[in-house]
Amino acid sequence: MTFESFAQAQSFLLWSAFGLAFIIGLVANKTNFCTMGAVSDMVNMGDYSRFRAWLLAIAVALLGVVTLEYFGKMSVDGTFPPYRASQIIWAENLLGGILFGIGMTLASGCGNKTLVRIGGGNIKSLMVLVVMGLFAFYMTNPLPGTDQTLFSLLFYDWIRPLAMNGDRPSDLGNLINPEAPELTRLIIGGVAAVILLWIIFKDHDFRSSRDNILGGLVIGLVILAAWYITANIQVDVEGEPYNLTSYYDEWDMLSDDEEGKPAMGRPLSTQSFTFVNPSAQFVGFNLGGYQLSLLSFGVMAVFGVILGSLFWALVSKNFRIEWFASVKDFFSHLIGGTLMGIGGTLALGCTFGQGITGLSTLAVGSFLAFIGIVFGSALTMKIQYYKMLYEDASFLDALITSLVELKLLPKSMRRLEQL
Q: Which of 61, 182, 304, 372 is deepest in the core (most CB within 10 A)?
């Protein structure tokens, strides 16, 4: 995909992001593809159908990425966010994942589900998007009147020293066999995909569920398509190809003036779908007065998912306005959005960004973030369950009992009995 000018290449990038995101919004609404719902069904009802749909999306994206990389059709080494960075920020991935998992449970959905619900008419989710976006924005941008970000104020001094510095990309291929990382990733990804597909399709109920199969398959393919497109967009400058990032870095030499130059270069890198950082970009786009220089893959993804979901809501006649049921419901969503913005930024992604997109790169940090997200969400659901059963029970009793049920504490420590 080679274009004669930067403007043409960037336009293709932005409209591709919108079109693919539109498909995500439409399909997620139609099939009820929901990662938080998947954890909820699994924890509360023992139903793994939607979790299998999530695993199907992971398997499809993973198999596609390792195959295309092996045959030299694309590379996801230098991405935005930097999944395979040599520095493994394991504590940030894990803590951020846990915070995000708690937040998405309190806010009734992950980043993508928040956008899908907005398209369906849910005003609560609009507030969640704004809150999540604001906190994510100020995690990486200075707070008004200061030179400090939320990350530097709350986390940097104690959590960044825990990071592990390496001399090679932090994906399984490079860590296990740096002499042949592409082949190693192909073997690991291929075996993992086959195992996942066996786990997924061995279940008769899943095999008979067209929506779950459609949701997992389409979303996995969309993640893969975004990787392929963003990795292969180039600008031809007198016979020499430049990707968008390298063109941006050499803008003064390649372009006659500043017109059409994006505000930032990193969002031009190879990437696929994630929804926490894009929520921050969306907030930045609004705070910046809707300047075209602030339009990015992430901003277009936010618009695309919302409008795709809206389209299906109108076609299926399921569009309806929803508001907060109570003051408690309002604060639950407010706290949830806050934790999603902070946690998703720490973890470098959400259930999509790390749980599908990141895992497709076989990055170590993505596995840690995925574990943290599922754990944080499952634990929160268990606590909510016991607080509902035992209204007078303390939070500590509910927490310890929940950890026992998750098999993280011995049964002898159980405080509350299941009814």
A: 61
For residue 243, give the amino acid letter.
N
Q: Provide the number of structural domains found in the chain.
A: 1
Task: Kindly state whether residue 418 falls inside one of the protein's structural domains.
Answer: no
CA–CA dist 41, 19 (Å, integer): 30
Distances (CA, A) of 161 to 90, 94, 164, 333, 372: 11, 15, 8, 32, 20
- Cα–Cα distance measured from residue 400 to residue 418, given in angstroms and rounded to the nearest whole number: 13
Tell me the backbone φ, ψ of residue 88, rounded to 5 degrees.
-95, 105
401 has a pLDDT exceeding 90: yes
Is there a contact between 368 and 93 (Cβ–Cβ < 8 Å)?
Answer: yes
- Over 90: is that where the pLDDT of 254 sits? no
Whole-prediction pTM: 0.95
Is residue 419 a part of any domain in this protein?
no
Residue 355, SS3 per DSSP: helix
Give the domain range for residue 396.
2-413
What are the pLDDT digits (tens) for 281-333? Answer: 999 999 999 999 999 999 999 999 999 999 999 999 999 999 999 999 999 99
